[in-house]
Amino acid sequence: MTVQDLTRRIVKLEQTVADMVQPPPRTGIWYLSRAGQFKNDPVYDEIVARGRAHRNSLRPKPRNKKR
After folding, report:
1. Per the confidence metrics, is the pTM higher than 0.85?
2. Is the dihedral of CA 12, 13, 15, 16 positive or negative?
3. Residue 64 burial (CB count, 10 A)
4. Domain range holding 39?
5. Greater confidence, 47 or 67?
6. 13 by DSSP, 3-state: which?
7. pLDDT of 11-33, one tens digit each?
């Protein structure tokens, strides 16, 4: 194998690695492709309910009015 062959192989490998590292280009509005992904999923509904309950538990309790 000649030096030129090795150089070509290294350049090709470097380009392949660079392509693997780079994220794919974003096209359009990304969240539209995810919309409805968890529709009718009972596990996701449970996650949402528990998150809401946790956020509500962090809110201060209302004070009782003095008469």
Report:
1. no
2. positive
3. 6
4. 25-59
5. 47
6. helix
7. 999 999 988 887 777 777 877 88
